[in-house]
Design brief:
- The protein has 2 helices and 4 strands, in the order H-E-E-E-E-H.
- A 4-stranded antiparallel sheet has the order 1-2-3-4, with helices on one face.
- It has one domain.
- About 25% of the residues lie in helices and about 45% in strands.
């Protein structure tokens, strides 16, 4: 898979989250091959707070099939910006 393919997955996942959540995504934080498909995790600022470390960040997972068509979407985590724990550390 080329860099352009990864960038396209990232763009498609971020656009899907933007369309579903109606908020601008911050970044795609993971792109992983899962079986024949792909999973992309995207961060979104859910609620701004002061201080900034208390801002709520949602992490959404978008799944794609082998043809890179969206097959699923789910919010998998909400955390405070100041919380540096990863999804895997919480499981």
């Amino acid at each position: 898979m080329s860099l352009q393919d990864f960038q396209k997955l990232q763009e498609d996942a971020m656009q899907a989250v933007k369309d579903f959540v109606k908020k601008t995504p911050l970044s795609a934080i993971t792109i992983e091959k899962k079986g024949q498909g792909w999973e992309v995790s995207v961060e979104v600022e859910e609620r701004k707070a002061i201080p900034d470390t208390q801002t709520l960040i949602g992490i959404y997972r978008v799944t794609f099939d082998a043809q890179k068509k969206i097959t699923g979407y789910k919010r998998v985590q909400t955390r405070k910006r100041g919380d540096s724990r990863t999804e895997e550390e919480e499981e």
